[in-house]
Write a structure and sequence with these properties.
CATH class of one domain: Alpha Beta
Shape: globular
Distance between the termini: 45 Å
Structural class: alpha/beta
Order of helices and strands: HHHHHEEEHEE
Largest sheet: 5 strands, mixed
Radius of gyration: 16 Å
Strand content: 5-15%
CATH architecture of one domain: 3-Layer(aba) Sandwich
Length: 175
């Protein structure tokens, strides 16, 4: 009974009040069955990427990622150009909510890079899923971000393993 109450309290807590370490502890506390080979888990690798983008010098790490997107992903070049303008002011936000109604109200992207009215959401995958399912996820996130961002500059990109087929804009983890 106590666990249920703790989980409810955690769920009600403002996202800005949840520290990185407590998020990790909470994730594994309530999902003990996936502790095996945790270093391969999508959530863990995504947390590591979020921490890297947020803590490493943005002028080097984040700026290089945005340069790569500008050069190789023309569909998102204008979004990346706005973010690269002041890389040290780009906010790295873990798991931005999609603000979907009903039983999907907890749906979230994996991370957001934002500066002023520009947002880039990154949906990370570490194992291949059906191409159609990935496309559907990216489309759902794009539609949600369109509503949230009120037509400002935004985009969604998939971060996928080399073995993943995709019909959406994507980066490989090796990129």
């Amino acid at each position: 009974m106590n666990e249920i109450n703790e989980n409810k309290l955690w769920g009600k807590l403002d996202e800005n009040s949840k520290s990185y370490t407590v998020r990790v502890l909470n994730f594994f506390h309530y999902r003990r069955n996936i502790i095996g080979q945790y270093w391969k888990r999508e959530e863990v690798l995504t947390w590591e990427l979020i921490r890297a983008l947020d803590t490493l010098p943005k002028n080097y790490f984040l700026k290089e990622l945005l340069r790569y997107i500008i050069k190789n992903k023309k569909e998102l070049a204008s979004v990346a150009e706005n973010l690269i303008e002041k890389p040290n002011e780009v906010c790295v936000i873990p798991y931005p909510k999609l603000n979907l109604p009903g039983n999907e109200n907890n749906s979230a992207s994996d991370m957001e890079l934002s500066y002023k009215n520009t947002k880039l959401w990154i949906e990370a995958k570490t194992t291949p899923i059906r191409k159609e399912k990935l496309r559907e996820q990216i489309l759902t996130q794009t539609n949600a971000l369109s509503k949230i961002n009120n037509g400002s500059n935004f985009g969604v990109i998939a971060l996928i393993p080399k073995t993943q087929e995709s019909s959406t804009v994507f980066l490989y983890w090796s990129d």
